[in-house]
């Protein structure tokens, strides 16, 4: 059993967005120091960190210097290159480990890992050539979704193929990038399970969270999800089993499609805290970010109990289109909390913050965050 990393030690974080920011808030609350490393300056995580290093992930000298100055490394951004993680791991423990990143940062490797281990996924094919794509569309059927293998999130690098006539253009759009073709799933809803796994194999989860997307970006989440007991049990078991298979340490999220016939299919694994888990920050005894701190430092996981049903609504840059939003009006809704990430430039589609609410039921909590957001 590795030594526990105690408060006053320094946790290094690759990445500097809002996930790192909320992680840093929890880490500092517990008396840890935080050192963030990313190519950017004046970042959401940097604002809360003790030290902010601005360097390229490919600058391995800077990576080694960073790793020498911290006691453990984790990340909030999964597209950190493998060589960067390896360079850091020469000096300090890295959680979750580099192999998990390697698998989950590429859709082809992720889907192959899932299907090889018997986890349910949409039918998919690896696409390298135009022939592969024609054959894939024939075998999988239409509609299908073409996704670049690397750097995909929030629907980026994704395109739906509705007819054979669209294949050539879709392939040209890949621009030589490796891709997968997936069957289009006519799902009833999307759900996720956020969990944490400790260094001793302990496991905690937040049950099933229900997610609504708009333009492929998460819009509203609520917990508990409106699903049957059987779906709940299966979603949690699949998540636990994936974490186990990885020998995972830290907070992880599994996103699922749930079909009308009650079948769960894994869409993606996030090897880090997840947007749908923001509603644990406040409404739960231990947030997904505190679980990450505890797990990477070798401390016992906390209770993931929800104090009350909760909901979250994302605030994209679009909310600023008519000037500064009316924060006072939103905050006047009882039970609503505001989280802003300290980003200066509210570009349309950019995640700037979120609202959470608690209520006696998830439906009521959703109504509150939506009402509060409409006042902005
Ligand atoms: P992703 O970046 O793969 O998480 O995709 C973003 C969103 O696009 C998902 O949350 C779904 O709403 C939608 N989507 C992705 N893949 C599929 C699919 N195979 N079938 C139907 N919808 C999909």
CATH topology of the largest domain: D-amino Acid Aminotransferase, Chain A, domain 1
Estimate the global geometry from the Cα principal axes: globular
Largest sheet: 8 strands, antiparallel
Helix content: 25-40%
Quickly name the level 1 CATH class of the largest domain.
Alpha Beta
Number of helices, where a helix is a run of at least 4 consecutive DSSP H or I residues: 11
Name given to the CATH homologous superfamily of the largest domain: ATP-grasp fold, B domain
Our measurement of the CA-to-CA distance between the termini, rounded to an integer number of angstroms, reads 50 Å
Q: For the CA atoms, what is the radius of gyration?
A: 20 Å
Query: In total, how many domains does the architecture comprise?
Result: 3
* Main sheet: strand order: 13-12-9-10-11-14-16-15
What are the low-pLDDT stretches, counting only 5+ consecutive residues below 50? none
What is bound: which ligands? Answer: adenosine monophosphate
Mean pLDDT: 96
Strand composition percent? 25-35%
Q: Work out the number of β strands.
A: 16
Structural class assignment: alpha+beta
CATH architecture of the largest domain: 2-Layer Sandwich
């Amino acid at each position: 059993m590795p030594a526990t990393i105690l408060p006053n030690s320094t946790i290094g974080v690759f990445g500097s967005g809002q996930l790192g920011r909320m992680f840093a808030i929890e880490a500092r609350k517990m008396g840890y120091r935080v050192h963030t490393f990313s190519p950017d300056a004046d970042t959401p995580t940097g604002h809360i960190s003790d030290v902010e290093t601005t360097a390229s992930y490919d600058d391995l000298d800077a990576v080694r210097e960073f790793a020498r100055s911290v006691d453990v490394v984790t990340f909030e951004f999964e597209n950190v290159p493998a060589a960067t993680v390896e360079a850091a791991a020469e000096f300090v423990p890295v959680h979750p480990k580099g192999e998990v990143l390697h698998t989950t940062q590429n859709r082809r490797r992720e889907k192959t890992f899932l299907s090889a281990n018997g986890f349910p996924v949409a039918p998919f094919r690896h696409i390298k050539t135009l022939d592969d794509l024609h054959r894939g569309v024939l075998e999988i059927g239409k509609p299908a979704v073409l996704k670049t293998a690397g750097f995909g999130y929030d629907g980026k690098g994704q395109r739906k193929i509705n007819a054979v006539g669209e294949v050539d253009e879709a392939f040209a759009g890949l621009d030589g990038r490796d891709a997968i073709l997936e069957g289009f799933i006519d799902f009833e809803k999307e759900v996720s399970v956020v969990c944490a796994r400790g260094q001793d194999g302990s496991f905690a989860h937040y049950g099933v969270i229900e997610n609504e997307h708009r333009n492929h970006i998460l819009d509203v989440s609520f917990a508990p999800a409106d699903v049957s007991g059987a779906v709940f049990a299966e979603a949690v078991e699949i998540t636990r089993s994936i974490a186990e298979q990885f020998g995972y340490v830290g907070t992880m999220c599994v996103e699922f499609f749930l079909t009308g016939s009650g079948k769960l299919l894994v869409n993606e694994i996030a090897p880090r805290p997840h947007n749908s888990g923001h509603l644990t920050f406040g409404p739960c005894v231990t947030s997904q970010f505190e679980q990450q701190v505890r797990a990477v430092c070798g401390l016992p996981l906390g209770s993931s109990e929800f104090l009350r049903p909760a909901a979250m609504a994302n605030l994209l840059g679009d909310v600023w289109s008519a000037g500064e939003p009316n924060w006072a009006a939103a905050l006047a809704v009882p039970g609503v909390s505001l989280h802003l990430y300290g980003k200066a430039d509210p570009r349309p589609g950019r995640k700037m913050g979120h609202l959470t609410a608690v209520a006696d039921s998830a439906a009521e909590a959703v109504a509150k965050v939506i009402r509060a957001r409409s006042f902005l």
